[in-house]
Amino acid sequence: MFISSLEGVYYSFKVVDQSPLTRFVVTQDGFIQYLTWSKNSNEWLVMVTLQRDGSDGYGDCGNCNDGPKCECLKGFRPMSPENWARVDWSSECVRKWELDCGNGDGFVKYGGMKLPDYSHLAASRNLSIWECEAVCLRNCSRMAFSKIDIHGNGGDCLLWFGDLLDMRDFEGGGDDLYIRMAKAELEAIADAKRNR
């Protein structure tokens, strides 16, 4: 059962009667493990560890596509290109142009995304996409927003603060994410469209 509220987002599982005691755990490395309790040894036994590929771990990559290769989103670059050339994606992606809040910052839409980590998130209900953007733009610490329909009421406006972690590019799925970008990046995108 998927539960989402202003206090948190999580899954809940029910085990039927006479079944062994089981649980799902997300490890500090970002793996999802399915465990069952062994009455014989009085310990939890790992039955399955789920991880799709090498870029599926928490915060391992700036932006991962469907393969095991990390990439930075358009408008970002690796902080350490040398490490990335050696297939070490532990360093994050940084902006090509620094933000200058109030001087032309705007948002770029990235479609088909696994949304960033929810640890720095605020939510507002029943805002249009334009109202959501305006709320996000008014506060310089808000780095991204998305509009998703969790509760079946037309949508919730989600606002991210600080670093955007644990995103993934899903081909043929995912949500739209609008990331705050500097005026210079927005101008570069507009110039590229004009020159096509």
UniProtKB/TrEMBL annotation:
SMART domains: PAN_AP (SM00473). Residues 101-182 form the Apple domain. InterPro entries: Pan_app, S_locus_glycoprot_dom. The keyword Disulfide bond applies. CDD domains: PAN_AP_plant. Keywords: Disulfide bond, Signal. GO terms for biological process: recognition of pollen. Pfam families: PAN_2 (PF08276), S_locus_glycop (PF00954). This is Apple domain-containing protein. It comes from Quercus lobata (Valley oak). The lineage of its organism: Eukaryota, Viridiplantae, Streptophyta, Embryophyta, Tracheophyta.
